[in-house]
Structure formats: structure tokens, C-alpha cells
Amino acid sequence: MSKNLFDDFTTGEELDQLYAYLAEEKERHGWTPRITIADWMKIGPGHAILVEPDGRAIASPVWSEPDCLEPFGNLCESSVTELWNQFPYKENHMNKYLERTMMTID
User: Fold this and answer.
1) Which class for 51: exposed (0-12), middle (13-18), buried (19 or more C-beta within 10 A)?
2) DSSP structural state of residue 96
3) Domain range holding 49?
4) Mean pLDDT of the chain
5) HSE on the CB side for 84, CA within 13 Å?
6) pLDDT recorded at residue 63
7) How far, CA to CA in Å, does 70 sit from each of 38, 52, 57, 83?
8) Superkingdom, according to UniProt (predicted)?
């Protein structure tokens, strides 16, 4: 599903402008929900782990792969710990989910 995802991708200055606009609007209107914006180029490839119904574990999106998917194991054949040890994008995964590479407006 990631194939062609980045054809009309927003990043860089355009995303910085969106961030500034949303921060300003949030303050002006007194919005309380936290706003989180993802710049996928900062997050990096393979940050998500997908598990298909047959147990196949896939890193996604991986832009260097033809379908943006990189299989790295199978949950039916390996434990979760073994899969994690095989996962080639641990740093990108953790940085995203710990919001180190996300833009947040608190």
C-alpha cells in the first residue's frame, strides 16, 4: 500500500509552514488537543512493522524496495523477540513511536 505514497508528499518548508499555522490557530482558538504531524522523510524508512494474516512480518515503508515493503521474518516461525532482533529499522521505529522525529504542538 505504500507504493507511490510519496508522489505528492509534503515535507520541508511546506510542512514547517503548516506547523506554524496550526500552532497559531491552536493558540488563537484555545484548542486543547495535542497536534502531531509526521514528516516521513525525518522519520525514515521501515518505521512500521506490519504482520500479515499468514504471519509474514514486513518493514514499511522502505522506499528503496519496489513495493516499499521489506519482509524480515514470520511470526508463525519466530517469537516476537526473534522478530524484533531481525528487524532492520529499530532506530526509526523507536524514534517515531517515542515521538523523537515527530512535530508536536502541545
Assistant:
1) middle
2) H
3) 13-105
4) 89
5) 6
6) 84
7) 21, 12, 9, 13
8) Bacteria
In a domain, 74, yes or no: yes
Q: How many structural domains does the chain have?
A: 1
Question: In this structure, how many other beta carbons lie within 10 angstroms of the beta carbon of residue 101?
Answer: 19
Task: Name which residue leads in pLDDT, 4 or 94.
Answer: 94
The 10s digit of each residue's pLDDT in 46-62 is 999 999 999 999 999 89
pLDDT at 28: 97
Give CA–CA dist 89/73, Å, rounded: 13
Residue 7 belongs to a domain = no
Task: With respect to residue 8, please indicate whether it lies within any of the assigned structural domains.
Answer: no
Higher pLDDT, 27 or 10: 27
Q: Considering the domain boundaries, does residue 1 fall inside one?
A: no
